[in-house]
C-alpha cells in the first residue's frame, strides 16, 4: 500500500485514468481512482473517517480547544490498495484520493483545484452524540446541486457512545432528530456507523470503503463537479 500526500496540487492524477478502469500501456494493473470528499461539522470525526478510509493515521485528529478545529486547511491524501477489486474478470487496484476539509463548508475553489475532475463520493460525517449541523444538506446542495444525493453516503461516528447507552443503530436512526433522519433517508449510499476509538484504521475503514465503492459503481464512476461560482 502506498501513501501519497497531495497538498494543493493541480489536476493530480496518479495514473491518468481517473474515474475509469483502464489498462496501462505497459500492461500493468488496472486501476480505479476515486476522489472522495469528507464533509461535516467541527469535531464530527471527519479526519478520523479519512484515516479509516486510507487505513492510516496521516490526517491529524484530536480534540479542539478554544473552538479552533484541528483541520484548518484542505488536505488531500491518496492511497493505493493493490488488487482490491475485480471487474470483467480482471483484478484492479483501488486508488482513493481523500480530501479532508475545514468544518462545515469546503471552499468550492479549493475543492476544484484539488479535484479538477470532480468528486466521485461525498462522505457526510455526523457525530452520533452531538449533531447540530442542521444546514449540512443545504450546503451540500449549494455546492453540488441536486445530484449530490446519488453520490453521498452518511457516516455516523462515535457509535461507541450508542453502545454504551444500549442503543442499536437502527433504533438510533428512528429516534434521532428530524433533519438527520431525513438526511439518512436521502443519501443513496446509505448509513455507516463507526467507532473510531477502536480497531486499526484499515480494519474499521473496510466497510466504508466497500460501501463507497458500490455507490460509485452504481453511478458508473461518474464524478460531481463543484459549483465554483457559489460563495459560502
Ligand atoms: N470515542 C470516539 N471518539 C472519536 C470517534 N471519532 C473521532 N473521535 C475523536 O473525536 C475527536 C475529533 O475527531 P477528528 O477526527 O479530529 O474530528 P474532525 O471532524 O476532523 O475535527 P476538526 O477537524 O477539529 O473539526 C478526536 O479526539 C478523535 O479521536 C469515535 O467514533 N469514537
Ligand atoms: Mg479534522
UniProtKB/TrEMBL annotation:
It comes from Pogonophryne albipinna. The keyword Acetylation does not apply. One of its GO terms (molecular function) is GTP binding. Pfam families: AIG1 (PF04548). It comes from the Eukaryota. Belongs to the TRAFAC class TrmE-Era-EngA-EngB-Septin-like GTPase superfamily. AIG1/Toc34/Toc159-like paraseptin GTPase family. IAN subfamily. InterPro entries: G_AIG1, GIMA/IAN/Toc, P-loop_NTPase. Keywords: GTP-binding, Nucleotide-binding. Residues 34-197 form the AIG1-type G domain. This is AIG1-type G domain-containing protein.
